[in-house]
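Encode chain A's predicted structure.
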Amino acid sequence: MQKTSQIYGIRAIIEAIDSQRPINKIFLQKGLGGELFKELEVSIRKNGISCSYVPVEKLNRLTKNNHQGAVANISPVDFHDFEELVEGILEKDHKPLFLLLDQVSDVRNFGAIIRTAECCGVDGIIIPKSGAAPITEDTVKTSAGAVFNVPVSKVDHLKDAIFYLQSSGIQIVAATEKTESTVYAIDFNVPCAIIMGAEGKGISSSIIDSVDHKAKLPLLGKIGSLNVSVACGVFLYEAVRQRMA
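Encoded structure for chain A:
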């Protein structure tokens, strides 16, 4: 595993993208132009990499090196190819358990979720390339290092990933308040994937429409929802409970 690091300079970042380095985010200087800069912009869009245009002062704070108007943050872990991950898990002699995160953007929530997923034997975590929390040093710390033990895959669209999982015989369960069924009514003792949505937004409507089952947590107090990492833990441990029964 590589350490968290930065790449700076337009040509260096283009080469990093071409070599499939796990890039969390790229910061570009506002107002820059030129053929090489445009080539970098095209490569960023083509590969679905998160990008922000910022003042030069921001780039100067990120690095003291000659950044040429471009700085990239590199993930401390490598991401797994989605289809290879799924096929590899299906070849094993056990019931797969996957976790999909729809727009969970807080790095500490992400780290806590990864930690719980590792403890529950999750086979892989699947996140979208756009809008998901990056894996940073804070993520690694909050996960207590679990991020190095659970495969994480980035996909262009979660909906396509759902269709692929369903075609592979894996049921999809969405954690959502927009249902009458509780988590305790779902059969997790089968190959399955659980989807958790972002706090406040929940799971997007297009994804909700494509799942096999929807389930909520019973809330008996006055607060209308749980922190996403806590809710995720309840769902995962219900799957563990059923599978151990």
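The two ends are 36 Å apart (CA to CA).
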